[in-house]
Design brief:
CATH architecture of the largest domain in chain C: Orthogonal Bundle
CATH class of the largest domain in chain A: Alpha Beta
Order of helices and strands of chain C: HHHHHHHHHHHHHH
Number of helices of chain C: 14
Shape of chain C: globular
Distance between the termini of chain A: 69 Å
CATH topology of the largest domain in chain C: MetI-like fold
Helix content of chain C: over 70%
Number of domains of chain C: 2
Number of strands of chain A: 13
Number of strands of chain C: 0
Structural class of chain A: alpha/beta
Largest sheet of chain A: 7 strands, mixed
Shape of chain A: globular
Radius of gyration of chain A: 24 Å
Helix content of chain A: 40-55%
Number of domains of chain A: 2
CATH superfamily of the largest domain in chain A: Periplasmic binding protein-like II
Strand content of chain C: under 5%
Radius of gyration of chain C: 24 Å
Structural class of chain C: mainly alpha
CATH topology of the largest domain in chain A: D-Maltodextrin-Binding Protein, domain 2
CATH architecture of the largest domain in chain A: 3-Layer(aba) Sandwich
Oligomer: heterotrimer
Largest sheet of chain C: none
Number of helices of chain A: 19
CATH class of the largest domain in chain C: Mainly Alpha
Distance between the termini of chain C: 40 Å
Chain lengths: 411, 288, 290
Amino acid sequence: MNTKIVSSIKINLIIFLVSTLMVSAGNLFAADDVVHWWVGDAESKALKVIVDEFENSGGKWVDTPHNDSEAAHASVKSRVIGGNPPAAVLMVVGASTQEWSEGGLLNDINSIAIRENWDSLLPDGVAKASKQDGKYVAAPVFLSTVNWRYTNKEVLKSSGVDEPMSWGAFMTSLPRIKQAGFIPLAVGGQDWQETLLFDHVALGVAGPQYFSELLDGNKKTIDSDDTTRVFAGMRALEPYTDLGKAGRGWGDTNNLVITGKAAFFFMGDWAKGGFLQAQKKPGVDFSCQISPGSRMVLTAVDGFAFPKSSSSSERANQSSLASAMMNRDVQTKAALIKGALPARKDASTEGFDHCSQNALALLSGGSAALHWNVRESGFKGVLKEVVSQFWNSDMSPDQARKALVDGLNQL
Amino acid sequence: MINPHLSMNWQRVTIYICLSFFLIFFLAPLYVMLVTSFKSLEEIRESSLMLLPSEWIFDGWMKAWDHACVGLSCNGVKPHFMATFSITIPALLLAVFLGAINGYALTQWKFKGSDLLLAGLMMGCFMPFQLYLIPIAVTLREMGIFGTALGLILLHTVYGVPLTTLLFRNYYVSLPKELIKAALIDGAGFFRIFFQVVLPLSPSIVMVSVILIFTGIYNDFIFALTFGEVGKQPVMAALNNIVNSTYGVKEHNVNMAATLLTALPTLLIYLVAGKFFIRGLTSGAIKG
Amino acid sequence: MWNRSYLLTSQLVLLPTLIIVVYFLWGFTIYTGFLSFTDSKFLPNHNWVGLKQYYLLWSNARWLTAYGNLFIFGGLYLLICVLLGGLLAVLMDQEVLFENLFRTVYLYPMSLSLVVTGLSWQWLLNPTLGLQKILNDFGFHGFALDWIVSSQYSIYAVVLAAVWHGSGLIMILFLAGLRAVDEDIWKSINVEGVPAWKAYLWIILPQLRPILLAAILLLTFNVVRSFDLVVAMTSGGPGFSSDVPAKYIYDYFFSRSNIARGAAAAVCTVLTVLFIISPYLYFELRKRND
């Protein structure tokens, strides 16, 4: 008697469950999106060039933007664990791509690379960084230069200060700018931004030789008085920053300089796009110089890596993404918008402003080093953690040096 | 003490001053967000945060609804609302149904091990979800539903059941046994008693559970962030993404409008069905 | 015969719940515990390394900050919520006009998510935008409310937001308790001529101990899950001064690709909370049973 009700309920329940399962089974592993953090004005426009090329060649771009690299990579890593990775993910090409690849997380894109003969198109260093075990695992798009100082010329003029070309001159200019009522130094509030500041101080206070040894993880150099001096030099900058810096993104921080609230900003070449978008002229309204007093350019390669997937349609999709990203015209056009250099050797540098030309000249002159962001995640994790902790607390320079040494020893 | 009447008055005045002070404390964030969301960007920059807008502008709300951007995607919070509801409603129904039938089974049909099951469930209410994230990711991968709405429905059901079970159990414990007995003598079966005798007696606890679970799932952040579907993340994860987007000029009016928009559903439920909301929050406590 | 089939059905309907308890709650807990003894990085693996992750965890400055913040945040949040909630409940118990209005306003934050709470306080506490600017504009130039940008005080900013969100709940619980107090007790208090504040402090409130227990358990639940609030409000910054275990665990799982270390942190967090809560729970419950 009651069994009827029971069984009808059961049947309904089963139908319900099965139907929901079937609905969802339709979307299984349909993720073919591209994860990135190019969400600034200029960056989005540069990305749009790649998107258009890819879609013109018949692909369908599914966009998954994140606010920063950390959020983007956290999401991709959880998706990899969950077996639902995106088609491509923006990366700093080098140690990160190699780490991911060693973990068995990436598809190689060697077949398209051979077909298009990437070896002959890319500078040797870039090609090497994009490979793991001789196979391409990343499509390099830009060669970014990281250690720029952006200066609002108008602010300097109002403060009666000439553009400082050495670290000493830079330091003496700060109090005068502050007195004139401006923020002397715009600083953001994320660990990687704070660590970019550290780069400049290290280059300015202890010099390029010291800095490249530090980046190589030379223990003797790291546990030297130079490190203490660098941290002390960083502390000396603090009075010249503003209160609003906590948690501030680089875009907002850049705007302080663009809109004439602040004088200086230390940031990578991607910040230039913001000035250009605001119709500011390089060399007239603002200027870009590499770290005051040093002649060393720190570089990183931006590109896309392609998480592992077994379906052949997905792999074909990844190949055509890679091909669009490596397209010469795309790289030229996108680099102009973003303010970076194209990864390809044969991309035209015509129309590049003096900042980019300056970078090119320094690069061909040979005074370049790979930035810490290209290093493996353990090393850069410790560096960022210690610098950020030091900058945001009353830790002494000596304690910071010790924390850095201990942290690296524990890796 | 000279004039007891006067001192009484002073006491009352003090009470009202205190109460009003805290009234302002609790309302301030809502007020600031509300007035700011209707201001133009220039006005936000130039005038005080506390002042009413000189001109009421709805642009912020329009933009927050369907064209606020993160990078190239300019969809506002609208698609995320749809996604959230398509997850919340099935999970809500499942969790409440399972909780009700559990509560009934646990209180009316005592058997060995039921206390153990209950104790095991209670633990689930207290653990940080971080403890479960990696096994969840692995499980969802094996089931092939990572990053889908179905995955989130499963998670919210699984982690909602402990709460609903406890709510219904506490309610059904005080159900008169005679009712069940009478139904038994009539020859009604397990499910018939549940659907025709027990469930009709529990509209208020169903209401309480529905509101509590709805609020919980709707306000969820960590599952939405970690396991949400690409491009269709539930609202709280999307909101954080939009508001903490760090590029260009911060559009405070858009951000605050987006925040208010996403806060609206649960706020409305609270205002309309506050009685049940409060009972949901307190029932575990009073009885527990 | 009848009874047996009913019993069987009741056990059958509990099957999904049994799966939840055994697999999704206890099974997952044990698996995460197991991972903390491995060297899992990007992906979970099963290479046993003993206590290595725990050793690394406890020598990591960021973890020590996050762990300390668990106590600062948890302690202050519980304390202030209970004090403020208690005070509001007592005030509301004085037969005030507009009681409904006050109650509705005090409790509405509870219906908002912690993300919304964090975002709105992030704006209010922003020194260049929020309260500090407002008061400076009014002429209070020395006024500084820069907690959120100070690595020393950022965690207190998070406490403030959490208290705003949670104290209404305590108010409601206490108020329900106060309303249930026996009339006769109030009568005898009035006869004895005890001042009202003394009566509350020494006679009435101590009767609400069971409610206090429940309140503390409910709030502890929020402390352990403080992830949302911190992420929305400060992202753990400046530096990692307002980091909490919940965020540390998440970052090590997914940003830092160090699943094992995150798992070790999760185990330590859960054990800590259990260590603090269980004696209290035991003590209170035994007393109630006596």
